[in-house]
Structures are given as structure tokens and as C-alpha cells.
């Protein structure tokens, strides 16, 4: 395929979809699949065929639509009507009522832009109206199994534009202009990282997509890889062109078999269509991608450990510098970015850095995807402009606390993060504001806790996680996390003293300052943040006399 063919194929793909008057999307993200959506998809396809409607109605599987605890979800387009908690017994009724008679099934309706009040319109439903989908655009609308569907949604046009109309320097300038920061946790400016790799002269450079996603409760990257894999592939190829790399690796955690399957299938389709591989679209640029499967070690998400793991070595971190940008995979300059970071590249190049930079806050541009979980009414996958308040996320989008309970805290950033108490519900969700409260944005896990949650237990749980996941290479982390865990357990069991609390605080500082990698350096964060905001809970469990 060359560049002209791409436009022709994209237009053809659009036309072939326009022949259908209706489209029914069945959420086939891992969450909905686990509640039976694949059977629903087959049942719907059979029902449509039996009614002879297969030329009018297209039935497709899609990635995650967002409101995961309402699944399985079925969406009708162009009516933009979503049915929730659907099961196979509802299919005939939904097709008859929604499609043939244009009447909604009230009990199953989540919202509808077609049926009038009293049904909720998407604009009135805060779960949808308060969100802005840039990274997740396409997840829930596109069939991740078919490259044609991605092409019909203007897929690979950004790659075509970059290869034929922009120099690598111009691409990097556009990403810098967007103010995009890496979504893997640390928030490092993406354009600056690309520029650093670009500037190193080498016979070989690499691009790595970090899809290890080991934070408990996080499933943002999994959903993007499952729901829109071509978006990530296109972002990686653009990055390869910008930094001068012709080889890419996607490191995906082994616990994500569906994401691996869809991503590998998408690579094959892109190769077959000349969109990755040798001389892409007839240009001089070649770029190939291979998948590497992680084996469930949290530390392998750390960039130097991940690189060692790809090299076939034991996945343990190395001291930096040198940073991977200078000496990464096989000692060559390597660009490593997170899945969500790569998924943000295509819209930035299609709409411009300026457009992206105008979204969010002065220091944190764009949107952030969160995996909303815990004691919240509507858990699932959400995407909001940076700077949206925690209150809006919990009470508008998330519909408040389960069972009418009280909000106690939100845990952000997983085992490297912290807990935000109720008095800070109006905090803006951006990098700086969360750091100021002793937490971090992290990769986007957001766990909501109610009044019954025990904050000492929360700290103990995350410390146990870090202790188990420590690779053991350096003493402060290997021994320090174990000592802190044992002290936390002692306090939790009401056997601790004020001296234990002092020891804990001291240890937290040593472990933070002397650990080799981010795992150890951030392991004390949940402890320190719960001590900062919920000290009275620790004190109520210890004997202050000693
Ligand atoms: C213990 C540990 C685990 C990490 N796990 C991940 C991960 O699963 N995914 C990820 O993208 N970054 C992870 N990171 C951060 C990476 O080291 C790296 O900063 C990131 O992939 C860079 O991408 P970005 O600039 O797009 O954020 C982890 C870091 C540490 C210290
Ligand atoms: S800080 Fe922990 S995980 Fe990191 S190198 Fe040291 S022992 Fe390993």
C-alpha cells in the first residue's frame, strides 16, 4: 500500500460501513467478556441474520465502553442508546423493541440519545457528560479485530501525514508543543524524551511500549490494548520515525491474554497492509514491532528491569544514568513510553499540539484515563481533562459511595501513591496538586474507600505488595519493606507501641532515600500519606505509654 492507496482504502472502508443503517456494538473488553458478552454477540448476530437484517445492521465486538460494573453492555448506533446488564434472554426482545418498533426496554436502558425523557440522555448523565475521550475515543465503537474499521475511523492517516509532510524534528516539536507528559507514572515530558533519543547518533535505536501495568486495581492500558490496538501501533511507528528507530517492542503483561491476542493480530494486519514493516506506505521508513510477554513481576514495569527482561535476563533494575534514552536495549538509545502515552500521539498529530495543550491545566495538559474502583456506585474506565476535581470524579461520574456510605479517602498511584482524605475532595487531579498532598497521579488507578476502610490496613496491604514484589537487589528495599511491613502488621494487630511508630517513620525516610529504583523509593508513600492524613488511626491502635 502506498500513501494514495491509504486514502482510497480509508474512504472505501468508510463507505462499506455507511451501507449499514444501524450498528450494534457489544462490549467485548475483558470485564464484559467475563460476564458473558461473547455469547451475547453470537446471539445478536444470529438474531439479525434470522430476521434477514444482515445487510442493514452491523453487529460488532468492541473494547471497553466504560461503565464496567453495568456490563454486559450493548450499544445501538446511530441512536446512541446503551443497554446494561444484558443477557442472552434479552436479545430477541431488544432487537424487536429497539430496532423494529423504535421503543426502548426501560428496565435495561442505561441512557439514550434517541428515546425522549424520562430516559436519560448522554448529555444529562454525568458519567458520560463530565468525561472527555481522547485516548479512549474508538474504544467501544471500533472493532479491534478488524483493521478496516480502524481505517474507516481515519486510522493511520496521522502516520501517512508524518511520513510525507513532516520531518522528525517537526514531529518532535509538535509533541513538545502539546505538553504531553508520560502517563506511566512519573509524568516526564514526552517531547523532551523523544528529542533526547533523537539526538543520540547510533546505528540502531529502539522504541518500547510499556504495557506491564502491574498496579493493583489498574486496567487502563489493558483496555486500550484490547479496545484500540492499532492506535498504539500507529503511535509507536510515529515515535520510531521521530527518534530514528526501526524496531519496536511491546512489553505486555502475561495476565492480559486478550490484549496480547488482539495486539499481535493487529500487528499482523498492519504488516499485511504495509502500515508497518519495510518501506512503510512506499516511504524510506521501515519499522517493525514484536510483542514480549511479561511474567507477572511488578518490578518489570520499571524501565531498566523491563529492558533486561526483553534481553532475556533476570528483570531487575539498574542504576541510572545511563538512562535508556542513551543506553537502553542492547546498549542502544531506546525510547520507552507507556501505552496511554503512545495512544495520545495520533490525536495530537491529527489535531495539533496547540489543541491538546489547551486541554487540562497549565502544567498538566490533556486528559487522563483512570480505572475507577472500590466503594463507588459506578466503577469502570473513565477519561477526564486534567484538573477535574476528585469530587467530580467520585460524586458526578462515579455516582457517589456505594450503599449511601461516606467518602473516606481515594487511593491514587497504587503502591507508589497515597491516600487523599475527604477534606481534600476538591483537589484538582493533576500531577502537581496530587504531589502537594503527598500522593501521585501514578498510572491512573483510583480506588475509592468508605468510612469502614481501615487506613492502617490499607498501608499494610500496599507494603506487603511492595515487600512481595521487591526484586531483592538492594538491601534498603529488600530488608526495609519487610521491616516496615512487620511493624505495620504489629500495629494493625494492636500490639505496637509509640516506639514502633517512630521506627516506622524513620525507616520510611531511609528506604526512600537509599533504594536503587522507584519500587523501593516509593514503597513508603502509602504509609507516609496515611500517617499524614490519618495519624489518629495509628495512634488509636497503639499503646502510647511505651
Ligand atoms: C516499580 C515500577 C513499576 C513500573 N511499572 C510501570 C508500568 O507498568 N507501566 C509503565 O508505563 N510504566 C511503569 N513504570 C515507569 C517506567 O519505569 C517508565 O517511567 C515509563 O514506562 C515511561 O513511560 P512514560 O514516559 O510514557 O510515562 C514503573 C516504574 C517503577 C519504578
Ligand atoms: S529498590 Fe527494590 S525493586 Fe528496586 S532494585 Fe532495589 S530491591 Fe529491587
The average pLDDT value, as a whole number, equals 94
Structural class: alpha/beta
Measured distance between first and last alpha carbons = 76 Å
State the helical fraction: 40-55%
Beta-strand percent range: 5-15%
Mind telling me the C-alpha Rg? 24 Å
Contiguous helical run count: 22
- Major sheet: arrangement of strands: 2-1-3-4-5
> Spans with pLDDT under 50 lasting ≥5 residues?
none
Biggest pleated-sheet summary: 5 strands, mixed
- Any ligands, ions or cofactors bound here, and which? flavin mononucleotide, iron/sulfur cluster
Could you explain the architecture of this structure?
With 546 residues, this protein is of the alpha/beta class. It is 43% helix and 14% strand. It has helices at residues 3-18, 30-34, 37-50, 91-100, 126-129, 147-152, 157-165, 168-178, 190-199, 220-227, 229-243, 257-272, 303-310, 339-351, 353-357, 390-397, 431-436, 455-469, 475-492, 498-514, 518-522, 525-539; strands at residues 22-27, 57-62, 74-77, 81-83, 109-112, 206-211, 247-253, 288-294, 334-338, 367-374, 380-385, 407-412, 418-421, 445-450. Strands 2-1-3-4-5 form a five-stranded mixed beta sheet, with helices on one face. A five-stranded mixed beta sheet has the order 11-10-14-12-13. It has a four-stranded parallel beta sheet with strand order 8-7-6-9, sandwiched between helices. α19 runs antiparallel to α20. The structure holds flavin mononucleotide and iron/sulfur cluster.
